[in-house]
Design brief:
Order of helices and strands: EHEHEHHHHEEHEEEEEE
CATH topology: Purple Acid Phosphatase, chain A, domain 2
CATH class: Alpha Beta
Oligomer: single chain
Distance between the termini: 17 Å
Largest sheet: 6 strands, mixed
CATH superfamily: Metallo-dependent phosphatases
Strand content: 15-25%
Helix content: 25-40%
Shape: globular
Structural class: alpha/beta
Number of domains: 1
Radius of gyration: 17 Å
Length: 242
């Protein structure tokens, strides 16, 4: 069994389809998605439909992203809905549901709300890895992390988590289309909704697949992107798990 981790999708259903086809996952392989399924791209509806189907088979473990939280807030808060629509690309999300105005909120199926609200995790921890959408406080266990760190904090000179586990995250988009690999922290948001790529990382081997909306595919290895951190405290050991 292999495990594929996928970065921020942001409504790019075609890139997701191309990526999954290129990887050729088997029915018993696992997929972990790092959140931000909606907004910015053209087909948030299609992305959620694909993920819901994968989740029902037991193959997908989805995390929640800050853009998914923004969409959930817009469902019940009129002020949040206006902010989402005009400032956070909610108009693009609603257009994928049939009309480019806030009335389209009623077009979103309950299954889509249920997926975001009840099926997505805030974080995931395994023997060697910690998966989050945005970032971590390196001194705290997962159950004590703040919402700000988990969903909103950018990846700016992160320190290793005290557990020694490698953090894999999205959120901080890499406009050059290349993942960040510091050994103890890996970011695979590579700007799928812009002119970049949707990235999938197989954690057992370090193999990287990337696809874009046009159907272009490229492959590499996560160690191709390894960059030694410029400065760490003297007592901090760099963990290079892949």
């Amino acid at each position: 069994m292999s495990t594929l981790v996928i970065g921020d999708i942001h409504g790019c259903s075609k890139a997701l389809d191309h990526l999954l086809k290129a990887v050729g996952l088997r029915s018993y392989d696992k997929i972990i998605t790092l959140g931000d399924y909606v907004n910015k791209g053209p087909d948030s509806k299609g992305v959620l439909e694909r993920l819901i189907k994968l989740n029902k088979t037991g193959q997908l473990i989805p995390l929640l992203g800050n853009h998914d939280i923004i969409m959930l807030e817009a469902r019940t808060d009129k002020k949040a809905a206006l902010d989402w629509f005009y400032k956070k690309d909610g108009n693009k999300t609603l257009a994928s549901y049939g009309q480019n105005d806030l009335k389209a909120l009623s077009n979103i199926p309950n299954s889509h709300w249920n997926f975001l609200e009840k099926k997505c995790y805030s974080w995931l921890e395994t023997e060697n890895f910690i998966f989050v959408h945005a970032n971590l406080n390196p001194k705290l266990p997962l159950n004590q992390q703040s919402q700000q760190d988990l969903f909103w904090k950018k990846l700016d000179k992160p320190l290793p988590h005290y557990s020694g586990k490698t953090m894999i995250c999205g959120h901080t988009s890499q406009k050059n289309g290349k993942p960040i690999n510091l050994g103890y922290a890996i970011c695979i948001d590579t700007w799928a909704c812009g002119r970049g790529w949707l990235t999938g990382l197989e954690i057992e081997t370090g193999r990287v697949w990337q696809a874009n909306q046009k159907g272009d595919i490229r492959t590499s290895w996560i160690n191709d992107y390894y960059t030694r951190p410029i400065a760490l405290p003297a007592n901090q050991e760099v963990v290079h798990a892949l």
